[in-house]
Amino acid sequence: MSVLNGKRALVCGSSQGIGFACAQEIAKLGAEVTLFARNESSLKEAVGKLNTDAGQTHGFICADFTDAPSVRDAAASFVEKTGPIHILVNNTGGPAAGPLADCDDANPHLQRERRGTTSHRGGRRHAVRDRQTRNSGAGR
């Protein structure tokens, strides 16, 4: 018997990258995994790659995390159909890699108002810029 037999996992941002790696490991442990991301063709491909050695059936939900109402509705519908979620991996894609000081506020991945982290992000970015200025020799 697998460690997570009979458990249902919802893995957000799971069509690729870290989210998909988490989904793969959870499936290996025997849980039924539901992938949650915005690209339906990627989700279909990814769900077919999940381990089913414990006899579990995997699925997916397609919604864009920048559209909070659609995510809420899709998740509510999922829970209504399947029952409770036992494992949640709360992961989403992010902005392209690069220095925090160079990030663009117009990028939807950086608009975290819905998650309440806007002030923290802005504070970190300004702190990084301040540190770069101090380390460059300016103001000495």
Instruction: Extract low-pLDDT stretches.
Output: 112-131
CATH superfamily annotation of the largest domain: NAD(P)-binding Rossmann-like Domain
Overall shape: it is globular
- Compressed to H and E, one letter per element, the order equals EHEHEHEH
Which fold name is given in CATH as the topology of the largest domain?
Answer: Rossmann fold
The number of strands is: 4
State the helix count: 4
End-to-end gap: 65 Å
Percent strand: 5-15%
Q: Percent range for helical residues?
A: 25-40%
Strands side by side in the biggest sheet: 3-2-1-4
Q: Average the pLDDT over all residues and give the rounded result.
A: 80
Number of domains: 2
- Structure class: alpha/beta
Quickly name the level 1 CATH class of the largest domain.
Alpha Beta
Question: Over the alpha carbons, how many angstroms does the gyration radius reach?
Answer: 19 Å
Describe the biggest sheet? Answer: 4 strands, parallel
Description of the molecule:
- The protein has 140 residues and is an alpha/beta fold.
- The chain folds into two domains: 8-89, Rossmann fold; 100-135.
- 38% of the residues lie in helices and 13% in strands.
- It is built from four helices and four strands; from the N terminus they run βαβαβαβα.
- It has helices at 17-28, 40-47, 68-82, 118-135, and strands at residues 8-12, 32-37, 59-62, 87-89.
- The protein has a four-stranded parallel β-sheet, with helices on both faces.
- The longest helix has 18 residues, at 118-135.
- The N and C termini lie far apart (65 Å).
- Residues 112-131 have low confidence and may be disordered.
